[in-house]
Amino acid sequence: MRISRMLPALVAATVPAALVVPTTAAAAPTPTVVPSAAAPTSSNGITVTGAERLTDRTWRLDITTPNVTAKYATHAGMSVRVTLPADYETSGKRYPTLYLLHGQDGRSSDWTQSGDLEKISAGRDVIVVTPEGGKASWYTDWVRQWGGRQSWQTFHTKQLISFIDANYRTKADGRHRAIAGLSMGGYGAMHYAAANPGMFAHASSYSGGVNLSRPEVRFAVLFSVNDQGLGLDAPFGSVLPGLDAKWRAENPVDQAAKLRGLNLSIYTGDGRGKADLRSNLIERGAAAASTDLHNRLTTLGIPHTFVNYGHDVTKAGYTCDGSHAWSCWKMSLALDMPAIMRSIS
Questions:
Q1: Count of CB atoms within 10 A of residue 69's CB?
Q2: Do 216 and 289 meet the contact criterion of CB atoms below 8 Å apart?
């Protein structure tokens, strides 16, 4: 029986660990198929099954990969969104890339539909890729593959980046590549950057669960995996002390020394806004994990940007109440975008 059925009161009481990303009900634009040089072809083990132009700048690519079984993707299967500079099809230029990761139970459309991605990236010479990250992938290659593949790290770092570089006019080297994400995706961004030296020049976390040693974050992982009906040890193996080597090997706080040389940004709220209690409690857990990473980087003498914006703050045209919410993540990306561009331009 699932934990969520057995212990509803416990779940409610410990919800800050869940780090679940709320999604807005924004209606998706009606897709129009438009032949274009921007439409990619299958390569590097990724098969393109459909390509639709959603706006002047954003495409949705439907794909398959042997590294991820489609049923483990969120909602509508495996897809990737690519947001191009306005002059992409006429300039002939090459562009740096930014990979933006979604949170638990999010989807590849989140940053374009809920995160104001086109507005925030407008006028900037950058290709932004928002990939499918699964219902609760935690951006790792799962130890136990339950009825299919969940090798998310291999998909993203060994397949997707090469696929994008092969199909778009990118500056295809780590000096011109950044990664960022929210909540579970904030963890993914820091984990991928630490695990793949030279792959990125910049990494950012917004309200990220960036310390796998924190009880709140470990519970977030276990709860999200259990909610899929899968074994609790599936992604990282046993959580028991002495048997949790993968938890520590893929923990940004434990692996912080490997982030040296990157430009780093960490944004979090204080979870004391006027939003619902659940979102505030979640953000408090994320704030604690973010502070842990900030402290570890400081101890190691690694330069980075750390912003705890508190609550009830208006910056970059967004008003954020300090909870685990899109208004705060949009603000974080808007504030962070100049630093990202300096890192990869």
A1: 17
A2: yes
